[in-house]
Amino acid sequence: MESYESELNRLAVFSDETDFYRFPSAPEKGDRVTVKIRTAKNDIDTVYVVAGSNVIKMEKFESIQSFDFYFCDLEYYEDILRYYFKIERAGRTFYYSKVGVSEEILPYADFVIIYGFKVPKWINGAVMYQIYVDRFCDGDKSNNVITNEYMYLGKPVVFKKDWNEVPSSDDVRNFYGGDLQGVIDKLPYLKSLGIEAVYFNPIFVSPSNHKYDIQDYSHIDPHIGRIVRDKGRILDKGEHSNENAERYTIRTTNKENLEESDKLFAELVKKAHEHGIKIILDGVFNHCGAFNKWLDRENIYTKSGAESMGAFHSKESRYKNYFIWHDENGWPENESYECWWGLNNHPKLNYEDSHELMKNIMDTAAKWLKKPYFADGWRIDVGADLGKTQGFNHYFWRKFRKRVKDTNPEAVILAEHYGDASSWLTGNQWDTIMNYDAFMEPVSYFFTGMEKHSDYFNRDLYNNGVAFANAMVQAMARLPYQSLISAMNQLSNHDHSRFLTRTNMTEGRVATNGSISALEGINKSIFREAVLFQMTWPGAPTVYYGDEAGLTGWTDPDNRRTYPWGNEDKDLIEFHKAVIKIRKDYSVLKNGSVMFLNEGTGLISYGRFDGKNIMIAAFNNNEYDMMVSVPVWRCGAENGKKFKVIFNSNGDESENIYLTDNGKTEIFIKSRNGVLLSYGD
Question: Is 592-680 in the same CATH topology as 10-116?
Fold first, then answer.
């Protein structure tokens, strides 16, 4: 262990928000909270907790090995309490916060107690799986979209008869037939992987294959559900209006089709629960679709008499105030409605001016969480964009949380967000987020150098272990503990290139590079490293369907290829099963503290520890083998004790045992490889 005569031993100082260093880690209002901090043995004079306006001296309660431990109790002062540690040594003052030791008080780095902030325990560290339904599995041929069934964005929809055909650059109206029955059929497969929750991209009635343009929030789309009433004509070649799209109208508005599709979803949730798998739905509440029955731009509902006149057709429509209009004299067929990002198939919803709309969406939020459906939560699309002002946005999400939690306290609210989400993670809005800043982006840059869309290669961040660790620590500091350990940690998803394609370190998109190039030059060793990192890091690791089977693809739409049933990379699937099993077998990987130990060129190592157990993960992303010195004493490892390699990302099954000496363990790591070690005699 290193010695410092005139300086605080900064590497020994540690505290965090896990149960070992703060108990309870997620307190109720009124709870007394015990906080702890660790320092090097006999290294400091005094340590205080600065909690709001209170400065509380801590007491030493234990000395073990190389460390002293101090504690104090914090009484309940206010709903949100921020604190940091003040350390005095030999006339000097140091501060310890989420980003480590400093000689000045750092903004935005305090530890935070949010009393009463409950995130469902089932999502803490859960292994999740994202399914884009149309591309996962076709379990029911009778509900497939028919070529020329209707028009979408000026062109007829197309059913792809070849399941293995890759998406074209103009893919939005192409359908492959994946459906909920296909998901039901593959539940045993998901169980065998070790999946604990499924996040679905939108599944409500919608005309696109991505379904982020909702047509009817009240029902599951029969094209992925069940169609029992199926008649009427499709469009003739050359027709460019949906006025005569009778088959589509019947399929998506017939009461029996809708009710049977809803029943199928209820069956899916029930069977998923029997397999120990939770179900999270996608909530697209910032905008709907131009086909939506409230706007009815395509005249599907108004003509059929299935619904009141849509706001597109009449200023007198009951739904007029559901939307924002820029031309009050534009009716009939008023084109002036406000859209999300200017996309006229994504009309923005106007909650501020319609209590009825607000009630409809709140009812939707509750409907799918209760009998007979019992879904387990919502992923929120573009959550920060909703509303006209940030003030209203926060008001909406407070209302939304209350309705969701009143319906099912164990339902999760997980939002899509880029950037600092701390103002939504205050215990009364979202539970957690899709973790771009503190996972996907820095992980992609370190292992591949690639921006998440494969738009450019960042030479400065590629293999830069120091920059990676700093980025992770800084971004994680902005997340409350409850949100951090439940954050959706993804390598790929439906909005970005497949991670396996990013390993080719090539800039491009399908429109410019072609689909075949997404497979060229890929490096599965790098991919396996990243998966091992994903499964050993705090949060909820989430596999994008097909990543585990070797799918490649540039960014949207190429990242939405069909699952390669019959052509899977079986070695990668077995790899995922093995590393997921390890995550589930070792609770410290879900609930333990995390600490970076060694960072360099192509090198990162970190410890996961909880007072009883220690695990070390180390990665060599260079093209050469290397011996790495890891200061394991910082995790509590004792001299003379051993670390055993229990998992090797390159598949090497040789048993490697490393001795701890002088506070360090020297670990040999082959090129493009990650190792996971467990501590013990």
Answer: yes
CA atoms within 13 A on the CB side of 213: 22
- Distances from the Cα of 122 to the Cαs of 277, 370, 411, 617, in angstroms? 10, 18, 10, 25
The string of pLDDT tens digits covering residues 117-149 is 999 999 999 999 999 999 999 999 999 999 999
The per-residue pLDDT of the chain, averaged, comes to 96
Domain boundaries, the chain: 10-116, 127-306+345-584, 592-680
Query: CA 11 to CA 4: how far, in whole Å?
Result: 10
The mean pLDDT of 45-71, rounded to a whole number, is 96
Q: How many residues does the chain have?
A: 681
Q: Does domain 592-680 have CATH number 3.40.50.720?
A: no
Q: Among residues 608, 596, 609, 605, which one has the least CA distance to residue 666? A: 605
Q: Which two tokens stand for residue 99?
A: 């980003």
Does the pLDDT of residue 563 top 60, yes or no?
yes
Half-sphere exposure of 12 (CA within 13 A, CB side): 22
Q: Which residues pair with 276 in a beta bridge?
A: none
d(CA 125, CA 113) in angstroms, rounded, equals: 20
In which residue are the tokens 């306290």 written? 409
Tell me the one-letter amino acid at 95. Answer: Y
Separation between Cα atoms, residue 417 and residue 422, nearest integer Å: 11
- Euclidean distance between CA atoms 208 and 230, whole angstroms: 19
Look up the pTM and report it. 0.97
Assigned architecture for domain 127-306+345-584: Alpha-Beta Barrel (3.20)
Q: Is 154 exposed, middle or buried (0-12, 13-18, 19+ CB in 10 A)?
A: exposed
* Residue of 451, 449, 413 whose CA lies nearest to 434: 413
Is the pLDDT at 11 greater than 50? The verdict is yes
The CATH class, in words, for 10-116 is mainly beta
The residue-averaged pLDDT of 496-507 equals: 98
Segment holding 381, helix H or strand E: none
Type of residue at 85: F
Q: How confident is the model at residue 2 (pLDDT cuts 50, 70, 90)?
A: very low
Summary count for the chain: helices (H), strands (E): 15, 32
Task: Let me know if 274 is exposed, middle or buried by CB neighbors in 10 A (0-12, 13-18, 19+).
Answer: exposed
Type of residue found at 610: D
CA atoms of 251 and 221, how far apart (whole Å)? 9
How crowded is residue 519: how many other Cβ atoms within 10 Å of its Cβ? 16
CB contact at 8 A, 132 and 560:
yes
> In whole angstroms, what is the distance from residue 335 CA to residue 344 CA?
8
Q: Would you state the structure tokens that stand for residue 625, as one six-digit string?
A: 């083998």
Is 528 strand, coil or helix? helix
Q: Rounded to whole angstroms, how far apart are CA atoms 489 and 480?
A: 15
Q: Report whether pLDDT(445) > 60.
A: yes
Confidence bin at 560 (pLDDT 50/70/90): very high
Give the tokens for residue 119: 């995130």
Nearest to 43 by CA among 25, 26, 63, 29: 63
Buried b (16+ CB within 10 A) or exposed e, 110-131: bbbbbbebebbebbbbbbbbbb
Cα distances (Å, whole numbers) of residue 206 to 214, 262, 284: 5, 14, 11
SS3 at position 558: helix
pLDDT, residue 303, reads 75
**353 pLDDT higher than 90:** yes
DSSP string, 101-145: EESSPPTT--EEEETT----GGGTT--EEEE-GGGT----GGGPP
Summarised one tens digit per residue, pLDDT across range 215-267 is: 999 999 999 999 999 999 999 998 989 999 999 999 999 999 999 999 999 99
384: tokens are 């920060």
